Amino acid sequence: MGNKSNASVFISTLSEREDLIFGTLYLVFGIVSLSGNSLLLLVAYRKRSTLKPAEFFIVNLAVSDLSMTVTLFPLVFPCRWLFNQAVCTLYAFCGVLFGLCSLTSLTVLSTVCCLKVCYPAYGRLSRCYGGVLLLCVWAYALMFATAPLAEWGSYGPEPYGTACCITWKTSSREATLYILALFIFCYLLPCLLILVSYSLILWTVRVSRRAVRQHTSPQHRARSVHSLVIQLSIAVCLGFLAAWTPYAIVALWAVLGDASQVPALAFVLSAVFAKSSTLYNPLVYLLFKPNFQKFLSKDVVLLQAIRTLLCCGCPSAALQPFPSPGFGDHPGTCRNCGDTFECFSNYPKCYKLPQAPGSSPQRAPLAILADGAV
Fold this sequence. Notes:
Blueprint: H1 4-7, H2 16-46, H3 56-72, H4 85-118, H5 127-146, E1 155-157, E2 164-166, H6 173-213, H7 220-256, H8 264-275, H9 277-288, H10 290-297, H11 300-310, H12 340-350
Antiparallel strand pairs: 1-2
Helix pairs in contact: 2-3, 2-9, 3-4, 3-9, 4-5, 4-6, 4-12, 6-7, 7-8, 7-9, 7-12
């Protein structure tokens, strides 16, 4: 457990009831995260031959979230930290590494999607470049995760005593600069890039919708594709902000004020929000990626399990494939679109209007966006 001088910092400062509540939350988070990310990786494995380079970042997100789940959740126990300082440091290192990797993957993915939809001339991403970007994501996360091991900042027990992370109570100028660098380069910059990227995507959706409305083509499919893009954009932005904003606020509060005055409950709540990202990251892409749903629906057992979960166990849930809004088999459907953003970007170009007998051919509206396939 370590020497006696360090034993007191590994004892929970929360009440017994709070320990039980947060311990239960971590147990539920661990089970759901393990199931969701494993399912996402299974779907990605089954469609591995057709994975697009942009989808590499979704797979990488699942890998980092699953790694965080496996390395962190089993070590958290109510009342006290059960291991020594070395395990505490390893726990904190894994938390920072995999957390920053997930955060950076989301940031790069949002930028790639923005280029793909809004600037298609620059949005083509080869597998080689996709692999290089993945290496950059891990290198970026590793740089900040290893800094405390090189004595720029430090790792230690959280103020609530049952987990470990960065030492928020700074004892030197270097430690303060490290936390400020984390805040700027691992929260503010990613937050800005994600919000700007999805704002540009939503603006492009709005402009496209206006252009489509000026033509006589059926509107249902356009609304469906637009709706999918909007839902995915909003879900990713809200998920990112919900997970990391509380942690960023508490960290800034601790470094600019007196860390000893920050309530332990604030630290534990911010940690819970950050770890909750491992739950809804896979759900966002399983629910809003039609090509992921297509592969998932091929497995009847998995499909039944998911439908039972979503329907809260209702036995009357019909065993039908997941619907893919906006990708139905009606006249004019572009059958080559497997990705939400790709289908949206290709919509005006590949959608052919249904013709009435004897009518003169109609042309679809000019492509607002060029082919955004990656």
